Amino acid sequence: LVFNLGAKSDKPSTISAINAITYQQGGTKTGAALQFVRENAAWRQGGNVPKVIIVLTDGKSGDSVSGPSQSLAASGITVYSIGVGNFDHGQLLQIANNNRNNVIELSDFNALATKISEIAKVVCAQVSDVCPSGYKEFNGICYKAFNTVKTFLQASKACYDDGGTLAMPKDAATNAFIKTLKDKVDPAGFFWFGLVDQHTENEWQWVDGGNLVRGHSDWKPGEPNNKGDEDFAEYFPNKWNDAGGNARNRKFICQVIPTDSPQGYVYHQLSHMSYKVYNVKKDYDGAVETCRADGGSLAEPKDAAVNTFIIYLKNAVDNRAWFRFGLTDEHEEGGWMWGSGVALSTFRTWGPGEPNNRRNEDCAEYLPGSHPKNKRNKWNDGPCTARTRKFICQVVPKGCPRGYKQRGAICYKAFDKKENYYEAEMACRAEGGSLAMPRDQTTNNFLIKLKNDKDGNSWFWLGADDKNDEGTWLYRNGKPFGSFRAWFPGEPNQAGGNEDCLMLFESPRNKWNDQDCATKQKFICQIQLPIVDSCGGNIQTEYGTIVSPGYPDTYADNQKCSWNIMARPGKVLTLIFEDFDLQSTSDTVTVEDPCTDRELGKFSGSTLPAPVRSADKQLRIVFRTDHSVSERGFRVKFIASDASGKRGVDEPLSVQQPDETMEGRGQEEGGQEGRGQEEVAENIDEDVLMETLKMLEKDLRNAANELRELHGE
To answer: Domain range holding 221?
Structure first.
C-alpha cells in the first residue's frame, strides 16, 4: 500500500502522492494486491458507502487473480478492471469477477485521458442506490444484517416493513456473502434467516416456499436436532442451527428484491407476483375493492409455494388474525372459484372438517397462526359479510426482475457461473423460470447478444435436450423443435456418444451445438411474465396480454369483469384479439372509452374481432356472461403507441409472444389454424403493424369523406 487516500487532506497533496508512484515493469502480482487490499485496507470503516476497487493495467499479472476477486465480491466490494494497450482480456474479466459490464478496454494511455468522464459515469451508475438504505446488493438482491434482537416473527415483521423477507441463502456464494455481512455487525452473534420446517418436521423450506436443495446446506455438526421443537434456522454463529422461534436474543438478516410493485408489496420470486398484507378488517367485497384500487386482486394461493409465502407474510404482520384471500363458492355451494374465475384445482389445504358451510359461509380465509398445530394457517370457509377479517392482496409487478432483459412477455438473463445442464436448470427454477428456449430467429439473436454482453468467449446452456430419444429434440417445456433451428455446420453430431444437451457456441460462431450434459457451462435463464387472468383490474403498463378467467378452459357463469387499461399521456391503445370463443349473443366482450363511456365495439360468438383503437390513453374491456353455456373465452393483446401512430422509442410493437403454457387456438403445427407457434412469434410485429396501418388508412378515408360532404362534393 503506497498511501491511504484518507491520509491526504487536499487535492495537491493527493496528486503529488500519485505522481510519486513508480511504474512497475513485469512480475507484478495483481492477485496478491487484491488480497492485500481485502485484508488490510480501511474499507471496513466506510459504513454503507459503496465499496469500489478500480484496477488499471497494461499487461498481465504474474499470479492468479480469480480467487482474490471472488473474495472481494463476497465482501460486497465491486471490482472494475481497465486494460490499456497490451492487456490480457481473459484476466481483465477474472479481475472484474467475470462481469463484462465492469471491464473497460482502451488502446493506449492517451485514450484513458479522454475517457475519464465516461468511466466515471459507468462506475457511478453501477454503484447508484438500487437498494433500501443500509442494504447491500448481491446478485440482484439487497441484504442487511440488523444489530437488534427479536423473535423469529418479530424479525420477519421488520423485514416485511422494509419490503422484504428474512434472507434466504439458497447457494454457497450467497451464504458466504451473508456471513460476511453479519460478521461486520456481530461476528459472535446468532442471526435468524428465512429457513423453516414448521409445516412438516425435517422438511426444510425457504420462507418463499422453495425447498432446500439437496447438496446445499451449512448445518453445524449434529444439527438440525429439533431439540425442544425447533423449527426455525439461525446462524450459530457461522453454521446453521435449528432453534425455537420464540428465542428473543437473536439478531437477523433481511433481503429485499427490488421491483416496481406498489408501496408495501413484497415480491415473490417463484410466482413473479407481489403480495401485501392489509392490517385492517373488511368484508369480502371491501377487501376486493381495496386490492383493485392497487391494480390487483385478493391473493390466490393456487400452489404450495405461494401458500407458504402468504402464510409467512400474514403471520409476520399478525399471527393471531383471520385473513381473507380470493376464493369463494358464492355462485354455487361447493363450487369453489378463485376471484379470477378459475375453478379450485387439486391443491387445497382446508382445516379439519372444512369447508362446512356453517351459517352460510361462502368466502375462504386463513385460520390464525396461533391455532393448534393441526389447524393453524389452514383454510376455512367464513362469512363474506363479516367485517372482522384482515386480507392479503396480490399485484403483477411491472417489467422483469432485476438483472433480466425483456423480450415480449419473457425475461432473460445470462449467468456467469458454470454448472452442468441439470444444475443450470435447477438454478433457473430457483429464479422462477427455466433454461432459455429460443424458438425463433429473433429470440435467438436476442440471446446471442445477451451472452456476448456477458462473456463472448464462453459457451452457454440453452433449454433443450434429446435425452429421452436420440435425435428427438425437446425444449424444457416438453415441446418439440419447430421449423427454426440454428445448428453449427455438422451439428448435432453426438460426438462421444453422450451429447444430449443444447448449448450456444462462443462468439463469433454463435451457433447451437449438442454437448455432454455433465460438462460445466455458463447458462441463460428465462422467466415468463404473468398474464392478467383475474376478473378485472386496473392496468398501468403499455403492453401485455389479457385472457378471460380460466382461459383456455371454459369461463364461469354469471360474471362481469372489467379491465381498465391506462397508458401514458400522448399515447393511444390498440387491442389485437388472438383467440375468441364466446357463447353467441348471450356472452359478450365490450370495448369502451372510459372517459365518455362510448362503446367502441361489442363482440360475441367465435369470429375473431378486428383490432380496436382508442381515442386517447385509456380503454376499458368489459366481459359479461350469463347463467348457462360456457366456451373457451378470449385472449387479447394490448399495446400503446404514440398518438401520431408511431411507436415510442423504448416500446416494442410486438407485445407478447404466445404463452408457452397455453394450448389455445392457432398453436397447432401447420395451424392458425395453420402457422406454427414460433412463426407467429416471428411475424407478430408485422401483423400488428399491418393492422395499425389499416386502421390509420381507414381513419384517413373517413376524414376525407367528411371533408367532401362538408364542401358538397
So the answer is: 136-256
